[in-house]
Design brief:
Helix content: 40-55%
Largest sheet: 4 strands, mixed
Number of strands: 6
Radius of gyration: 22 Å
Shape: globular
CATH topology of one domain: Double Stranded RNA Binding Domain
Amino acid sequence: MGARVRDGPAIYVGGDGSYWLARVPVLRGCIASGTTRDEAIANARRAFRAYLTLLDARGVSIEHWKDLDADTFEVRDMPTDYIVPEDVGPMEEHELRDFLHQFEASRSALLSLVREMSAAELERKPTDTMWSVREALEHVMITEAELLSRLEKWPVDPFNTLQAVHRMVFQRFTVIEPADTALDHVVMGWRWTTRKVMRRILEHEFEHLGHINEIVAALAANRPSE
């Protein structure tokens, strides 16, 4: 059984003040923002068409959505728990494949924007209030790891995402050649070397090993006696 959709496709909008987000869950991943509710909705309708163009250009079939007209989508308030009907229910195998194809297309589009940029361009902020490209890319990486952790049913599962991130770090250092470890550069105003990255990874793990040990001990001390 696929995701449950109430009536026809809809745009779900939420926000306040000068920041509003509008999502189009029928095309998973389609989102737009605006300084007003109406602006976010209008931008979401345009984003629906732009996202289909992106997918089609990168070889992802848009057959499922090509006959949908975003201008006709109903507008609904985003539920307070941020769960829309399309978010509920088990997925069929083809839906998982669709996600992977979309994910690959999205990443390809992102890399095509930044692949030819110099190190200086990646670091440069257009204005004092805007991120650099480097900051935006790091935000993408960190957020994806955080979102993956939401899949876990600890302790039922064997800490799959935690272990996956460990394997990612292990693999990254496995493929580093000795000559590459001479890296010494400035990232977002801070000097980084390979040795410093290694040190910070191990420090962070050890610091939070102690932190989690304290939490576990506190839980044991507060456990009601039988």
